[in-house]
Amino acid sequence: MPVFDQPRSFPVSQENQPVRRRAVFSSSFAGLTSQHATDAAEEVAARGHRRHLNDDALRLIDDLTNRPMDPLFMDSRLTRRPSSPVVTWVTRVVVFLTCVAVGFAGSLFVQRLHTDPRRAVRQSWAAELENQTAQAESLADEINDLRSRIDEVSREMADFQQSETQIQDEMTSGMIPVEGEGITLTLADPIAADGALPRETSGNQIRVVTDADLQQLVNLLWQSGAEAIAVNDYRLGMQTSIRTAGQTILIGINSIESPYVIKAIGNRNTLADAVSAERQPMLYESYAESGIYPQVAKSDSIRLEAAVSGDVAHARRSE
After folding, report:
1. Residue-wise pLDDT tens digits, 65-119
2. Structural domains of the chain ordered from first start
3. Which residue from 57, 70, 271, 315 has the highest number of Cβ atoms inside 10 Å of its Cβ?
């Protein structure tokens, strides 16, 4: 069979010419030639040799072999450089400023998305609570100072000598500062609690120190002969309670946080033995299961300030 010379590419018929060229923005678009493949039937009629009609596979192979690059990228004059260096630098500056502005706007948008709208409210409430607590502590100190001055003035004016019974009553009720030997009992929430979990053991929640734990330890110390007790430097008096408000432990009206330090004045050996692991094995075992490890230290001298107590308005002395 005669061998026919195959063309490198299929010519495009006049009626299949593209209406609009692809590189219209190029300065040399007029010189670009269309390289679209023609219909197989027309090619067979033009060349006079047999080929399969609508042989898309051969046309695809021809395009991939002879035209691997798009004509748009073959035009080396598509990218024109500015003729003036001033225009080049102005373009660079404008592009740089545009990128900076877009990046800054994107950063503000992302920061706005990650902002917690309730955080400002919580911070405001926390700051207000701290201010109120500081004012309450300042007023309590002022009350104690005024009471001390009243007692001193009363003694000077009436040449009054306190009886031993009255001194004991004031010491027991926490009305005056006291000092003596005793122990310091320290316990803290487990590390895994991170200070922000509910104060009850429920399900998989981590157990933390509760007001009931502090009450139990304080009661053990009272029963063992403690004469004065303070929790986190807040003296326990007649009108002082240990309770929970929400997730915060309160000593009276003052909030405290972990670690919890209980100071007790009394016979240090007796008090230390009363809250030791040997005397309270079940209590210490429950603490160890939750990662709470109380520490007891004996002291030769502990000073506790007076407790804050309100004025008596309804009580009367009974004859």
Report:
1. 877 766 666 555 555 555 678 888 888 899 999 999 999 999 988 887 777 777 7
2. 14-74 (no CATH), 162-304 (3.30.70.1880)
3. 271
